[in-house]
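== Folding task for one protein ==

=== Format: two labelled lines per protein ===

==== Paired sequence and structure tokens ====
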Amino acid sequence: MSTHLQVAPTDVGLPPRTLDTIQDVSGEARVTIRVDNFSHILSAYGAAGITAAVATVDLVLDQIRKGGCSVSTLRPGHAEISFGQRSLLEAAEIVEVVVAELSCRPVHLGDHHFHLAVTCSAASIGTWGTAGHSPSTCEPLHDDEGSAAQYHRDMQVAVDTFAALFDGRFHMSWQPVVAADRPTKVLYNEALARIIGDDGEQLSPALFVPTLERLGLVRAFDRQMVAIVLDELEAFPGAVLGVNISGHSARLDGWWSSLFNRLQRSDIADRLVVEITETAALPPEAPMFVRALRKLGCRVALDDFGVGHASVRNAISLCPDIVKIDAFFVRNSGLSDRSGAMLEHLIGIAGNVAPIVIVEGVEGLRQSEHAAQLQARHAGPSGECWQQGYHFGKPSFWRSWRHDGAEPRVVPLRDLAMHSTGFRPWFRAASEGQA
């Protein structure tokens, strides 16, 4: 049984979602593409790494030129694309292909491989661009041998992650958010990424997402995760699903263009919960990103509440529909009166920020009952005590919304029509007359 989320979105002022063109003073539509990790590549791989990176960028930009766009290379790692009088939608689709191709295609340098961290900005404000560049999402790299070695190790994790994603060694597990007193009442099912390593071991996001965040590459991964969940929502109208994105990804720009358009054109938005994790600091434009999602009909959850970057401040500024209390607090709530008081304090704060509060990490009946007692004192409009954790079920490949029968039947992800999760090379789009 699934329950649709009945939370009215706040109707706030947003940038226009439909602009005829993105124009500067000359009347041209322009976007700037920037590679953020050139200095990191130089420190870790030397001049040869820069040469290989520039060659990869040039290869993608040459395809843009063949598609009829004007490209100016401002300096290595910076390029300006002019679309003339193309519409915002056309320009946005091109930009999305470009940033995805640059980020998801590994650069080869002998025995080493690495990815490019890419950002983009538009000449004027629209649904997917902001005037001026956001700061780099890459963590600073010290120019020493130890930092270079660590960068090599981190980048190998990224290379393995993207290779698994595109080679079919990736799966989604699902875990429900349920009412504590009636576990058959499901608020939504959260998608949890699982990657199968070369040795066959199943790897959870905790092992690779922090690395992608340090490298400035998590946005490419998050975009793929959201696209997969949208596919699931479109294929199965009975599904109400949640998907995690990093705080780094909470930006309105070219990365999200096609996905926002899908949400705007379809009826799936009110069945989607976007969970923003606080493992990385949120960018200044995160509140605008949240408002845009809510305007489309999505619900937004703030994940990891209590342990993340400036949790209370973020909760107040984002005005989420849902706040999820980090599992750390319920797991420790029974250790002392002080720990129990801390959990109740966080539930109280969360209940004043959002109408729905979820306690994560519930692993046993006593934990569930204790958390429910505290939640009941601060219950929101629904009156439900929503919880998530192993007590109600471990993450599983089983999708209850797909099947009428009681017997589980796992459907591999690759069996779905993954029409939106892969990025078509620019030259293919151009040859199909869709550029």
About this structure: The two ends are 43 Å apart (CA to CA). Residues 163-415 form a domain with the TIM Barrel fold (CATH 3.20.20.450). Residues 212 and 361 are 24 Å apart (CA to CA).
